[in-house]
Design a protein that fits this description.
With 582 residues, the protein is of the alpha+beta class. 38% of the residues lie in helices and 27% in strands. The chain contains 14 helices and 27 strands. Strands 1, 2, 3, 4, 10 and 11 form a six-stranded mixed beta sheet that branches. The protein has a six-stranded mixed beta sheet with strand order 17-12-13-14-18-21. The longest helix has 44 residues. The chain is globular and about 100 Å long.
């Protein structure tokens, strides 16, 4: 049987993992029994690493050593400084992926090494590459990177049969917003267009509530919590809880007792009430900012609202009443309820994994790139290589030559975005083709094959005029080098091995303590003087095992425990032979 490929929704706020079982996608619960796991990593003051629910629970008492919403920094040079170490977003994300991987292995009872990981449709090349790198650091072969709305549509498509339909996936998560328009027909999911904002999500709604709470505290209590990390973390958690409450209630009470100590050492207590009306007034611009990406996606797909058959929701932010009203106002219909917004993305990723392993029937995915990608020209303008919404995989060949005598290299700068000015787009990579010395201008020609794979990640290959592969140096503007990636993957594996060995040793020690207790009880129950020599041998084995529990590794503990059990068995035989009752 082919190895299982798990599907992972690596979210800003929460993550989820699923797998195909008996022909359907099943979400795998975590060790706490929840289907989603907080995307939170923390380091205790003793240096212990905590991930998921455990990390989130201790965040109030340990805010400065707790990392949240790291997904928003993927593909950037952002770093987390902790205990004289510098952690990249890929490393922090890898800790979350490792937990999900172990969760899947414990559930399946088998090794897991392959995964489909989803990303926001509007993630650029650097962010996609960083996500794949995080998977590699976590010890996962990332078989595919799939856009979150596409994965959600795949889940929906598995429940829908019959005629073709045009579907909008409205994916509003904790840190990103995407809108994707697809044609779904039997056996084919064709993405027509995608648009969005990878810096807009539920975190921004939390921030607005948090600002409101801080404003109220300043006005009511003359207290500013801005320099108090513990108070800020409590406000952050209260803001998230208030947002959730206001998805189902007309108002919510926010109570923060003993949030700080005032100038007179008296406790500062805050209590306020936030109404749905006030919340919607505060977040009106955030909700409204989702409108333009929808309009652009429709224009790019050359469709109107009247052409859309169904709207699918993904992400927890879609539960906000004003967001749901926006959807109804724009599309004049209610969204379908066939899929769970929190689990649909991971389930779709698992479905794609099941297709690749042959567990499910083939479904053709035709996805697109979210943003145009081009090369900077000498005048600073952009020559487009791939327009946004180009179906992937795709490649384009360009002929480059040396423009001057004695030129040492042909250099290029690749950017991603929609502006005609290279400086206004995101820098993706720089490439360099080394040239032989003293070559006259225009004497050399190279065929550069620019390609984007099914994961939406950019590559380039170079052939000389004889058709032989030429050397090209491609340097990503952001992200990890291949050397750094391999080193971090080895470090992460070493940590996993160390944690596994610690668990195995603890289990062996616990079993050894049980055997020691039982053996001591056995000796105490038998006071016959005729067995003193035998008891001495048993006690020597007891002491040997005790020392191993204190100082030795798992193998030595198990060996000494096996020796003691053998000696006890011989002791029991001797008591029987001598007719001693034990």
């Amino acid at each position: 049987m082919a190895e299982k490929i798990i599907g992972i929704d690596l979210g800003t706020t929460n993550s989820c993992v699923a797998v195909i079982e008996q022909g359907r996608a099943v979400v795998i619960p975590n060790s706490e029994g929840y289907n989603t796991t907080p995307s939170v990593v923390a380091f205790s003051k003793e240096g212990e690493k905590l991930v998921g629910q455990l990390a989130k629970r201790q965040a109030v008492m340990n805010p400065e050593r707790t990392i949240q919403s790291i997904k928003r920094h993927m593909g950037s040079k952002y770093r987390v400084d902790m205990d004289h170490r510098n952690f990249s977003p890929e490393q922090i994300s890898a800790h979350i992926l490792q937990k999900l991987k172990k969760q899947a292995q414990d559930y399946l009872g088998q090794r897991v090494s392959k995964a489909i990981i989803t990303v926001p449709a509007y993630f650029d090349d650097a962010q996609r590459l960083a996500t794949r790198d995080a998977g590699q650091i976590a010890g996962l072969e990332v078989v595919r990177i799939v856009n979150e709305p596409t994965a959600c549509a795949l889940t929906y498509g598995m429940h829908k049969a019959g005629s073709a339909s045009k579907v909008v996936v409205f994916d509003f998560g904790g840190g990103t917003f995407d809108v994707t328009i697809l044609d779904i027909s039997e056996g084919v999911l064709h993405v027509k267009s995608t648009n969005g904002n990878n810096q807009l999500g539920g975190d921004d709604f939390d921030r607005v509530i948090g600002d409101w709470i801080r404003g109220c505290m300043k006005a009511q209590l003359a207290y500013d919590p801005s320099d108090n990390p513990v108070a800020l973390q409590r406000i952050k958690e209260a803001s998230e809880a208030a947002k959730i409450d206001l998805s189902i209630c007309r108002s919510t009470k926010i109570q923060l007792p003993f949030i700080a100590t005032g100038a007179d050492q008296a406790p500062v207590n805050f209590e306020g009430e936030l109404t749905l009306e006030e919340f919607e007034r505060l977040t009106k611009d955030l909700v409204g900012s989702a409108r333009l990406p929808v309009e652009r996606a429709l224009d790019d797909a050359k469709l109107t609202v009247a052409d859309i058959n169904s709207i699918i929701l993904a992400g927890g932010t879609t539960r906000i009443p004003a967001v749901q009203r926006l959807i109804r106002d724009m599309f004049h219909q209610d969204p379908v309820r066939a899929v769970n917004p929190d689990e649909a993305v991971a389930m779709g990723a698992a479905i794609q994994g099941g297709i690749l392993t042959g567990e499910l029937d083939e479904i053709l995915l035709l996805d697109v790139i979210p943003m145009s990608l081009g090369i900077e020209k000498p005048d600073g303008k952009v020559a487009n290589l791939f327009k946004r919404n180009t179906v992937i995989p795709f490649n384009k060949k360009v002929i480059l030559t040396n423009n001057s005598d004695r030129q040492t290299a042909i250099r290029g700068h690749l950017v991603q975005g929609e502006s005609e000015e290279a400086s206004e787009n995101k820098s993706i990579a720089r490439f360099s083709i080394p040239l032989p010395d003293l070559a006259p201008a225009k004497s050399l020609q190279f065929e550069v094959n620019f390609s984007i794979d099914v994961d939406g990640i950019f590559f380039c290959d170079v052939l000389d005029k004889e058709g032989k592969k030429a050397k090209v140096e491609l340097v990503r503007t952001n992200g990890l080098s291949r050397e750094e990636l391999e080193m971090l993957a080895q470090e992460a594996q070493s940590e996993v091995d160390a944690e596994r060995k610690a668990v195995e040793r603890n289990q062996a020690s616990a079993q050894a303590q049980k055997v020691l207790t039982q053996t001591e009880e056995l000796l105490s129950a038998n006071g016959d003087e005729a067995l003193q020599v035998e008891k001495t041998i048993v006690r020597q084995a007891i002491n040997s095992l005790r020392n191993a529990v204190l100082e030795s590794d798992t193998a030595d503990i198990n060996s000494k425990m096996h020796d003691l059990e053998g000696i006890v068995a011989q002791y029991m035989k001797t008591t029987t032979d001598k007719g001693v009752s034990v």
